[in-house]
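@here heads up, posting the sequence + SMILES for the zinc ion run so it's all in one place. Ping me if the SMILES looks off, I pulled it from an old spreadsheet.
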Amino acid sequence: MTANSLGTDGRRRMPTCKTLSSAAALTAFLATVSAADRAPGFTTADLRAADTLRERALSDSTAYQLVESLTTEVGPRPAGSAGDKAAVAWAVREMQRLGFSNVRTMEVTVPHWVRGEADFAVLAPWPQSMPTLALGGSVGTVPDGVQAEAVMVKDIAALAALTPESVRGRIVFFNNRMERTRDGMGYVRGVAIRAGGPPAAAALGAVGAVIRSVGTSTDRIAHTGAMRYPADIPRIPAVAISNPDADALERQFASGKTVRLRIRSSSRELPAERSANVIGEVPGADRGSEIVLLGAHLDSWDPGVGAIDDGAGVALMMGAARLIKEIGMKPRRTIRVVLFANEEFGTSGSRAYLAASEAELSRHVIGFEADFGAGPVWRLSSRVNPAQLTAVDQIARALAPLKLARGGNQATGGADLDGLVKLGMPLLSPDLDGTHYFDVHHTLNDTLAQVDPAALRQSLAAFTVSIWLAAQYPGEWQRLTAPVPPLR
Ligand SMILES: [Zn+2]
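bot reply: prediction finished. Complex structure tokens:
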């Protein structure tokens, strides 16, 4: 089927009298129809290999061993830190040990923000201190901290409804509860407050900001994450407190008495540092110039050791490529693993990759990204040209023993592949279950103890089978030229 026989919704357009003026044209049209109805299928050998890969992955401990090694031997690896550099060296070493080809680094300049120490206290009406974490990128305070009367709002819209007089000179408490969801939409809806709340408060003259963590943990642990100051806004300190402490602070406000807060932080930004994307490949055979891109990020936030974010993603991508390398059949397309630098604090690595790969962007025929925890995978979604949905159906059938749901064709991938996806690269998305992900995300609890080995193996099976079949697909993975309808 040619692209112009498809409407933007992917349905075949019926020929009109205007477009078909002769019997010859009708015959030609019918030929394209029957070709489309016989969408190229996978070979029996490829499907058998998919079964073998699935069974091997379900008993393979490579992915778990990789997360264990990364979190034990490297630990926290925020952009620009010594851990960041150690992670790059670790990834090069492990890719070589696993026998990947063309293992290399791509230099990336990354910001170097240092957390320092932070503390947070309620001074009135009922004084007490609460555990806190500075938001990534936030400025520090003078040693005595900033203290001020506080104002509580739900979110940025509620703040905007206040008069500047009621905000000026105060500390703003953003008290929005993040919703727990399986697909991560609760985070998508809640995260704007972390990134944009403190600057919005500063624009109205606030002297500090504290947010209820963008996370679902009911433990007394705060969730950090990135924020950025626009150039023309005063920089005010910004911290997060845990859900139970936010509940307690809300009760202090509910008393109707004046609430006074104090924020102290020694966060600071140091000069930019060098980091790197780490790249390794399993070279392809007859379609070797086409790239199946596997993305995850090597950096992590610093309170934990980045086991679920994104050690698990790193391990899934490396583990899947290794299983495919050892199956004894060369994949048709080249499988390229890219472990991106600094996803967390500005996606430096993916932007550098996009800039460096400008000449070969069209070779990136389909992508996978794992940046949503350690599994299990519960659904197969996609973002492909509608002409290839039949291939996705065939891949879903090969995954049937894993009992996945069939998702829609509006997958968005993660932050690192976003640039390539916006340029039309299709995606296949074995969706990781995010129900409990945000109990741990960006907290000191992001440790190996949060990785369930069985869920990780099941996820490895789902990724490996999908990646293998994407590499073997006998047809073309056509780029997306028409916009895919928004998710919701
Ligand atoms: Zn991540």
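MO: The first strand starts at residue 101 and ends at 114.
MO: One more: The two ends are 29 Å apart (CA to CA).
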